[in-house]
Amino acid sequence: MSSNSAQALRDTLSERIMVLDGAMGTTIREYGLTEADARGERFRDNQEDLLNNGDILSLTRPDVISDIHKRFYQAGSDICETNTFSGTTLAQSEFFVADPRKSGGRKDPEFFESQVLRNAELQDLVRQLNHRSVELAREEADRIATETGRPRYVAGAIGPLTVSLTNVVDPNDTSFRAVTFDQVKESYRHQIDALLEAGCDLLMVETIFDSLNAKAALVAIRETGTKIPVIISAAVGRGGETMISAQKVEALWNTFAHVKPLAIGLNCSLGPDLMEPFLRDLGAAAPTHLSCYPNAGLPNPLAPTGFDLKPEDMQNHLAAFADAGLLNLAGGCCGNTPAHIEAIAKALEGKKPRVVPTLAT
């Protein structure tokens, strides 16, 4: 992203509430894909099942991922995230590296160092996955922007990982961690380099369960020297704390304030009704733009999307958030389809964005 484009993004945030996309995983379900679809010819003989590895579809079913981006942009999304939520060597190793626990071993720093971080094939796969995911989103962003005359942006999605720097995994050795901070940072840096090489407009460190993992991602971003905008978004529980590191939202802001993010916000884990008080607390603490993309309520296996709230429900909740002055960016996480985003976009049209507070001098 050029400095002019980055400034245009900031200017737009001061003029109107921008719209994020919805849930990639939820929307993928609509296509009825099979294990064979996920594997394609390239991964036909892979030892682990790949159907739950949504990121791999950028390589094996790019037509599906491209169509999903198109649908979200057409629904009104200004920003779509790349299909890279698990686009790191650490996360992808779950699908492509044999689990040592099956043979009596354990996942520890030595395992991740030798079998994951130094795995050239895995590194190459992850780089391809991130590159292709940016390309698919960029093609649709540019096409829709040309058709509508309104700029569309691509956000490089950086997810929370399947390992934690904070969580105790061995009750008999509470000091043990499966990975080190430097290993997590290196894995994130590999992903971030690929996202930047492919030309995303901004980076989103999202669905933060463990603030220390997120810190490693943000250190990796800083080390690249990039100037593109960064959005930080945490997942909190019913008490308003991050799920693993248990930081309340004010502490979360204090942890990341030095990054000077374009926006900080909350996503996933809760529906909008349960998320609202914590969003208010975060807005009171953070003198920057505020983002919010909640789940479509709580999980419900009997609902078509797996979540309770319908498009009109999300529309009403997010409109109320806007009227309360809580939003600069809004979208949906788990359970939110293009229909949900279309309803949210219509609800937010013409509503004033949150006024970013200034720090007292």
List the helices and strands and how they pair.
Blueprint: H1 3-15, E1 18-19, H2 24-29, H3 35-39, H4 57-60, H5 62-75, E2 79-81, H6 89-96, H7 109-117, H8 120-148, E3 153-158, H9 181-198, E4 202-208, H10 211-224, E5 230-234, H11 249-256, E6 263-267, H12 272-285, E7 289-293, H13 311-323, E8 329-330, H14 338-348
Parallel strand pairs: 1-8, 2-3, 3-4, 4-5, 5-6, 6-7, 7-8
Spell out the key features of this protein.
TIM Barrel, 8 strands, alpha/beta, single chain, 361 residues, globular, 8-stranded parallel β-sheet, 14 helices, 46% helix
Quick overview:
The chain has helices at 3-15, 24-29, 35-39, 57-60, 62-75, 89-96, 109-117, 120-148, 181-198, 211-224, 249-256, 272-285, 311-323, 338-348, and strands spanning 18-19, 79-81, 153-158, 202-208, 230-234, 263-267, 289-293, 329-330. The protein is built from 14 helices and 8 strands.
Protein described:
With about 350 residues, this protein is an alpha/beta fold. It has 14 helices and eight strands.
Low-confidence stretches: none
Helix content: 40-55%
Oligomer: single chain
Please count the helical segments. 14
Secondary structure category: alpha/beta
The sequence of SSEs as H and E is HEHHHHEHHHEHEHEHEHEHEH
Q: CATH class, please?
A: Alpha Beta
Q: Mean pLDDT, rounded to whole units?
A: 95
What is the CATH topology classification name? TIM Barrel
Number of strands: 8
| Arrangement of strands in the largest sheet | 1-8-7-6-5-4-3-2
- The structural domain count equals 1
